[in-house]
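Example 3.2
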Amino acid sequence: MAYIQIKDNFPIVQMNLRAPIQDSSSFWTGKPIARWIWILAGFGVWAVWSTGPADTSPGKVVHTTPKTQAIPMKSACYVMGARKNYSDERPSHRICLSAYSLDRHEVTVERYSRCVAAGRCPKPVAHAAGHPTRRRCNWNRSGHRTHPINCVTWRQASRYCGWAGGRLPTEAEWEHAARDTRAATGLRARATCAYAILASAQSPVRLGCGAGGTRPVGTSPRDRSGMGVEDLTGNVSEWVADWFALGYYRHSPGQDPQGPRRGRTHGVRGCSFQCVPGSRLLAPTARQFAATWDPSIGFRCARSHKDPAEGGPK
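Structure, written as tokens:
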């Protein structure tokens, strides 16, 4: 069963219209085996080279993979949620977070393909020819290697982050990075195509500010939080680690909340190329959920770190 959440008359997740992944066995037919042994060996060397150990020294930008940076976040406290906007954002409540880092950009098709080549990640489920949403799924699309990977399930996103030495961020971590300054929060609420990769306010609506879908990560330099995390407003919405529950904020712990222990859907944060200006989903406190993949959903990774002020890891 597919779950659909609708806010502001905007369908967050489409129905589950999965198509079977095509059999690729014919690709290997008749090929000299020695050639493919060398190709596979080359992929192995490439995967090892691209995923070396991360520099997690406090106060430094953490280099994870080529052209990718993770922004360190010191342990901090803030008021999560909102008194207005949607009811599932209430009550607003004070929480504290241990030190962590969050990828500057959403995971790209190029980065995800390395995990696939290493045999650790499956291909996105909607890549098969003839799928009704294929034209907005970035996998195997020419010229889209620097676009965010989309059409991946929560489990696929979680598996990639684990392979890359991290994990999906919690809802609390994601919101903290998105609303780190009042200026950044205010800009998000008033976002247009001049600020982020959204849908235009014109009629008819033009998705992705006219691109029809996503754009390369980092295309909108104004869509950057005060801590330097980019594309938290638009391009794709993002999976977070938590199970989703409407009333979770009423009993959320005050230190490093991890979400409910179980659930049927997972949390999604941020807006995407489908969001129109003026949508309440642009608020950094807005919560969404999904049970399956969608062209509007991608992800980024987080990592837990030692904070010198706290004397050790949390």
